[in-house]
Every structure is written in structure tokens, then in C-alpha cells.
Design brief:
This protein is mainly α. The protein is about 70% helix and about 0% strand. The chain contains 12 helices and no strands. The chain has helices at about 1-15, 15-30, 40-65, 70-90, 95-115, 135-155, 160-185, 195-200, 205-220, 230-245, 255-260, 265-275. Helix 2 packs parallel to helix 12 and helix 3 runs parallel beside helix 5 (about 95-115). The protein is globular.
């Protein structure tokens, strides 16, 4: 039992779970626009998500405590290195225009973790984009939207029509809402200068705002030129589940409430599509 718990914690801490969520949303885009299964883009998204997330999460720790790293963190570093090798292989399987697109989001991820701006922009000694007040949640939503919507479509030379941009807006909204339980959870620990949404408007107003955003997320589906009744029914379920998790979010959460259950909603969405299509 102890070994299973350690493996599960490694699954969460090494960003495998969040990477599967990113892959799920990317796969959902392929299914929505009827693009054939793209093995190389999905594996690239998986490996790059693990690499990118672990770089952002553990860069500071590895930088300042390299010689005294705990075994768990060393395993995560090694796993991240393997993911980086896999990412490096699949990136050269993609089209040139896709590589330029990836470069832009790679720079954003790099600057998200690495100090580069004057000190007056930051809330503390970690001089990177993630510590600019109020910016974090929107950067994450922007990158997730770009990777899970536009990246697979550009790689497959799909024409960017109105439905694509509606999907992108939906995805941006959904990621923001999925981030809210995390921001509510971290309310006790985040610096006030971080200016997260719960810090600025309170937990109750955050939940109201998230509920309204979810309503917009669902309604946008009705404006698409190509959608199906099954897709709408599944979207009703995903919207409802996301709303439930948001409304039951609190500062004192169980350990895996956000890190596993909330983050796993895109995976559940993909499973539903496989079951009913």
C-alpha cells in the first residue's frame, strides 16, 4: 500500500497527471474537428508538458539546493530529463510552421520561471512572470489554449475558421475556471501582492464569477456551425461537474481535491467522448 501511495504521489508531483490533462484537451480538439489520430503531436504535447511544468515548478529548488536534493526530487529530475529527450525527438517530426508556433510558447514558459525583468515588477525575490501580480492565471490559460487548440490544428494544416476561435475562447475560459479551486486552496499561502482572483474579490465572488464563466463556456457551443447533440450533452455534464468542484472548493482542501480530481476533468471529458462517439 505504501508503494502504491508513493507511486501515486510521484504521478502527481512529476506532472504526469497534468500532462495527461493537456493531452486530453489536445485530443478533444482533434476529435471535435474530425482530424485523424496524430500520434506525434500527442506525444510531443505529453513530453513537453511534463518538461515544462517540472521546469517551472522545480527550477528554483534545483538551482539553490542541487547538492542536497531529496531522492524524490532527483527521480523527478531524471524523469523530466527523459521527457525532454522524448520532446526533443518528436519536435523534429513536426512541420516548420508548427516549430515557430512552439518557439513562441516555449519562450513564454521559459520567462515564466526565469528572472528577466526589473525588480519593481515583482512581488518578491523570484523575478519571473509567474510572480507579476494578477498575471499567472491568464498566462496559464493562454498557453494551454494555444497548445491544446491551435497547435494540433496548425500541425494538421486545418483552416482556422469561426468554430476554431469559439473553441479557443471556450478553452481559455475553462482553464481559468479550473484554476480557481487551486487559487482558493492557495489563498492562505500566496503573497497578497500576487493579486489572485480570490485575493482581489473574495472566495464567494470568485465562485460566482466562475459560475458565470462556465455559463458562457457552455453557451458558446450553441454558436458553432458544427456541433452535435452528443457533444452538447457531454458538455452539459462537464460544465456541471466543473461547477460542482468549483462551488465545493475551500481553502482547507483535501490533498488531491484540486491536484487530482479538478485537474482530471479534461481526462474524464475525453473518456466520455470515447464512450459515446
Amino acid at each position: 500500500m505504501k508503494v502504491l501511495k508513493q507511486l501515486f504521489n510521484f504521478y502527481i508531483d512529476s506532472s504526469i497527471h497534468v500532462a495527461f490533462s493537456v493531452v486530453s484537451l489536445t485530443w478533444i480538439t482533434l476529435l471535435e474537428f474530425e482530424i485523424p489520430f496524430d500520434f506525434k503531436i500527442l506525444l510531443f504535447v505529453l513530453s513537453s508538458s511534463i518538461t515544462g511544468y517540472n521546469f517551472v515548478k522545480y527550477f528554483g529548488v534545483a538551482k539553490f539546493h542541487h547538492r542536497s536534493l531529496a531522492n524524490r526530487l532527483r527521480y523527478i529530475q531524471f524523469f523530466s530529463f527523459l521527457s525532454f529527450i522524448l520532446m526533443s525527438y518528436f519536435i523534429w517530426q513536426l512541420q516548420s510552421i508548427t516549430l515557430l508556433y512552439i518557439l513562441a510558447f516555449g519562450i513564454i514558459t521559459f520567462l515564466y520561471a526565469i528572472p528577466f525583468l526589473p525588480k519593481r515588477f515583482y512581488i518578491d525575490s523570484q523575478h519571473n512572470l509567474r510572480n507579476i501580480g494578477g498575471l499567472k492565471i491568464y498566462l496559464i490559460a493562454l498557453v494551454w489554449t494555444g497548445v491544446t487548440v491551435f497547435l494540433p490544428l496548425i500541425e494538421n494544416s486545418f483552416s482556422l475558421n469561426d468554430d476554431v476561435f469559439l473553441t479557443a475562447i471556450q478553452r481559455f475560459i475553462l482553464i481559468i475556471v479550473l484554476m480557481l479551486p487551486f487559487e482558493i486552496r492557495d489563498l492562505r499561502y500566496d503573497s497578497l501582492k500576487l493579486a489572485t482572483i480570490p485575493q482581489k474579490i473574495g472566495v464567494r465572488q470568485t465562485k460566482i464569477m466562475g459560475s458565470l464563466l462556465l455559463g458562457m463556456f457552455f453557451l458558446l457551443e450553441l454558436f458553432k456551425n458544427q456541433t452535435t447533440y452528443i457533444a452538447i450533452i457531454i458538455l452539459v455534464l462537464i460544465t456541471s461537474l466543473t461547477l460542482i468542484f468549483l462551488l465545493f472548493s475551500k481553502t482547507e482542501q483535501r490533498k488531491y481535491y484540486s491536484a487530482f480530481w479538478v485537474e482530471g476533468l479534461p481526462i474524464f471529458w475525453l473518456i466520455l467522448l470515447f464512450l459515446f462517439y
